[in-house]
Amino acid sequence: MTPPPVRIDALARRAYLGDQPLQLGPLEYAALACLAANAGEIVTPDALARHLDSEDTAVRQLIYNLRKKLGDTLPHTYVKSVYGRGWLIPFEMVVSFTCERFEVAGRQYEAISWDRRPSTAGTHSFVVTAREVTG
Questions:
Q1: Is the pTM higher than 0.90?
Q2: 29 and 76 inside one domain
């Protein structure tokens, strides 16, 4: 059975496991959003601590708590440990990430959605739907 994917709605600051909302504290949400935004890439404890403005030891406890809330038991499906380097969420476990604002050629845009698309070449691709922010 395939585990449900993670969905992040950064505009609403909510996270879902499949269609079920996750009950996360603010730091747990921020850690999950950081890992999901970097899906498939290792996030070091130091980088995550800086992102969360927290201590390294607190980040390790946060990952432990986050895994519990995800029901992520050994072998870890969602938040994988990379020995001596950090953690990652496998790319295939993040199905969508609604993010905030970004800039292209000096114009501000607000992302509406960020959806993973299958690829036959073995590469990862996302389609971003966005609208220009005016005013």
A1: no
A2: yes
Asked if 23 and 83 sit in the same domain, the reply is yes
Structural domain that includes position 125 = 97-132
Q: Can you spell out the DSSP letters for the chain? A: -PPPPEEEETTTTEEEETTEEP---HHHHHHHHHHHHTTTS-B-HHHHHHHHT--HHHHHHHHHHHHHHHT-PSSPSSSEEETTTEEE--GGGEEEEE--EEEETTEEEEEEEEEEE--TTS--EEEEEEEE---
Q: Tell me the per-residue pLDDT of 103-134, one tens digit each, with 9 for 90 and over.
A: 777 887 766 555 555 555 555 555 566 667 77
**Distance between CA atoms of 86 and 43, rounded to whole angstroms?**
5
Q: Please, what is the Cα angle at 8 between 36 and 26, to 5 degrees?
A: 90
Check: CB of residue 49 under 8 Å from CB of residue 57.
Answer: no
